[in-house]
Amino acid sequence: MAWFSVLLVAAPLMLMGVLVVHTACGLLRNYASARAIGAPVRIIPISPLNPFWVLVDRKVLSFVRRLPGRLGENSFTRYNWRGWEVKDRYHSHQEMGDIWVLVTPLKNWIYVNDPEALNSLLRRENDFPRPVFVTEILNVFGPNISNAEGKAWKTQRKIALHCFNEQNNAIVWDEALTLAGDMLKYWTSKPSVDTAATDLRTLSLHVLSRAGFGKSFKFESQEERKAQDSAGNTAANYKESLQTILENLILIVGLGTNFIAYPWLPKKLRDIHAAYVYFRTYMTNLYEEEKAAFAEGQTTESNLMRSMVRASQADAKDGGGLTEAEIYGNIFVFNFAGHDTTANSFTFAIYFLAAYPEVQDWLSEEINRVVGHRPVDEWDYRSDFPRLKRCLAVLYETIRLYVPVATLKWTGDKAQPLLVGGKVLMLPANSMVAPSYGSVQTDPRFWGPDSLIWNPSRFITKSGVDADEEFCIPVRGAFVGWSDGPRDCPGRKFSQVEFVATMAVLFRDNWRVEPMLKDMGESPGAARRRVLDLIENDSGSVLLLQMLHPERAPLVWKKR
Ligand code: HEM
Ligand SMILES: *[C@@H]1O[C@H](CO)[C@@H](O)[C@H](O)[C@H]1NC(C)=O
Ligand SMILES: CC(=O)N[C@H]1CO[C@H](CO)[C@@H](O)[C@@H]1O
């Protein structure tokens, strides 16, 4: 056994050694450039952009952390893994100030925690562009908005903004109300629910399908789906093929879509390829339908795909439209950007609510005040959505603590000045600039001493006794959950509308959600603490940040 553990420790150490030797020059060069900035510096031996490392980082580090004494506590174990920002919260910035530099062999990562500086950073799109090389994986289905730069990005962005309009948001609202109603019916029909995450994922995917591509699917639970013949079930095939692609995106990009087509590959790869082909065919069919409808001049309800086809056919005359490949690229990006983000945030939110019954009461007080006894089909997006501020606050508060996607910038080929804490610092060319989302959104200076506690009411203010409640972000620039500035998330309102509609349906009729007690001996308080523990200590990055095992805490829906 001894030689085995020696090997287990030695192998990663040797690997590290090789990497360090190979990249010593890079580290030295980057260290010199980092020192010139005049901010505190920490050094890690492996680039966070190293795809091999990303796959093994946590496993290797959990061994290194077990080294005796202080050997296991250093910048390597603290910063050299994907997702450390959320674990670390504001502590690094508290130690080092509002800007510090993580030196890596490939690039320097400059972490910024000053809300004013972040405001300026996110608005200077030309000075601090998105590092598209990080998101290159999104090109599997064609070029895309997320990866485009310069003029190509402007065209795509214009068309995207045209797609994400209020008419589309109204569709999101209606579809989410219907789906949430069916989901609640299913949840409340069962003694306990351990599929909340899967069901919320289904809901988010179906809303996307309807508002994105005009295809409406009924809510169905996993059980219902299994009972059906899966071959003829379009919703299930769409969902599963997308899921397979998202889960294996890194593999697909690494091997290439041509390679995974070989028939002699292992079954797992063939299945991935089948999912890829299915999804591509699905998109092609949607596209052809839309083009035909456009050619015939049919005016039906709008959706993202339809707007994209129309905008590009109309713009094509003056040479500004999207190509067919770009449309596929974007559809995939909308699916990618809009699916995991929303589904993961919804799951965190439901579990937080289960742990805080008083917030459920606070929520349903608002819902009852706003929609009263009107049946759901009379709820109106334009008049009801803006009044459901507490529902919106629940989403913000969840994303404040558990940001699904990080926004990331870089300086490109020119050094850029940035005002941080009253001092202008020169950020060298070719540096990553990372808004410290894990820190700025939890820093007690901006959020108060209870900054690590989930408390949605911090987003609600009331100026007088009779005054209406207002939604408000306490410190401008201290919340970057949907990013900000010209390259923020175009799906922000889409996700907010979807979330608020879902909350309003779930918590209107005096339904309450609780964690199921483990055994007769567990008190409700202990069960809630167990849920909070699951959220805090059992979350991690899969593709994005998510709860790893929500099914370990089944939920119970009860009428009050
Ligand atoms: C809770 C839900 C969501 C969150 C927290 C979120 C967050 C973000 C963030 C932080 C970015 C910027 C990333 C960067 O700077 O590199 C982004 C970009 C983007 N998001 Fe979202 N998003 C959400 C939902 C959605 C939805 C529902 C859609 C579409 C249906 C969507 C579509 C996009 C697209 C297309 C981009 C790229 C924009 C560009 O490059 O100009 N997002 N999102
Ligand atoms: C997470 O784990 C730490 C260390 O075991 C513990 O102190 C903390 O209370 C846990 N968090 C929650 C919310 O239970
Ligand atoms: C339209 C567009 O800008 N597409 C870009 C997508 O991303 C790749 C890089 O991965 C670029 O080469 C394309 O130009």
Automatic annotation (TrEMBL):
A GO term for molecular function: iron ion binding
Pfam families reported in the protein's UniProt record: p450
Gene3D superfamilies: Cytochrome P450 (1.10.630.10)
InterPro entries registered for this protein in UniProt: Cyt_P450, Cyt_P450_CS, Cyt_P450_E_grp-I, Cyt_P450_sf, Cytochrome_P450_monoxygenase
Segments forming a coiled coil: none
Cofactor: heme
Binding site for heme: 489
Origin: domain of life: Eukaryota
Record keyword Iron present: yes
Keyword terms: Heme, Iron, Metal-binding, Monooxygenase, Oxidoreductase
Family designation: Belongs to the cytochrome P450 family.
Protein name: Cytochrome P450
Organism field: Podospora didyma
